[in-house]
Amino acid sequence: MFVHKTSNGYFIRQGSSKREMPTEQLARLFQTRSQARIIAFDEQFVPNTDKNTLRKDLYQRFITESATEDEVDDLLLKRRLLVKEGQEPRASVAGVLMCYEKPDDYLYNSLIQAVVYSGKEKDADHQIDSQDFTGPLDQQIIQTMRFAKRYNAVAARKDIGRVDLPQYSMRAIFEAIVNAVVHRDYSKTGSKIRFFMFDDRIELYSPGALANTVTVDNLRYSQATRNELLARLLSEITLDDDMRKQVVRRHFLERRGEGVGIILNESEELSGKTPIYELFGEELRLTIFASRSIWEVPK
To answer: In terms of domains, do 128 and 271 share one?
Structure first.
């Protein structure tokens, strides 16, 4: 993402298009900067917090197990889970998102809303299930995965043995959810991550324009992280055995830049259709198409 200042205001360029930046987006851009250096939003302090805001069993995942009580504060500061406001330690945005039981209390809409519809349109009369997942980000990912698995219909084909034919690749869904959580703009409090399942597709909405020089056309080949601290923390958390088997990885994030490729390749193999990324203002939508296997099971 490139920003240009002109006599007519600030303009944003993404790919070959250019448009004037809305006032709210410009304010968020300035919010992430200081005169001395660029400060990532996930490293900024959250007002009205302190060390006690962070839950011990959650922050201990990121510091040395043998650390004494006197060493804990320094380690939390080094990991940027705590940051200083003047001389006062405050929980950082990443600290609240990863080490507080309900981040939405401090960072409004820092949650995932998941909805399943019967049919192909958003219609409250055809809503099957709806849940908001509000815990630490790694728990939000796991809860959304369980939700998706519950409604991921599976057909079966009998060859020599049973062959399951799911609507969606759970591995692709995992990569999509993790990407949405890591790359969303948490300074944009007017919207949340939204995960919608329909009869023929999944739609995943993530608040925030694409970072740096990334465009919807080069997503497969580009790698730019909006929230570097969150990415580092998620790359340190080990998945349980069941989830590890589903997604073929050890940690929430492997940081090899393979996620978009996995989403595209695994989904296209099932459905015959390439997933579509679209940018609507400051919101990215990913559409993953369902396999036809549920209705057309090969003999």
So the answer is: yes
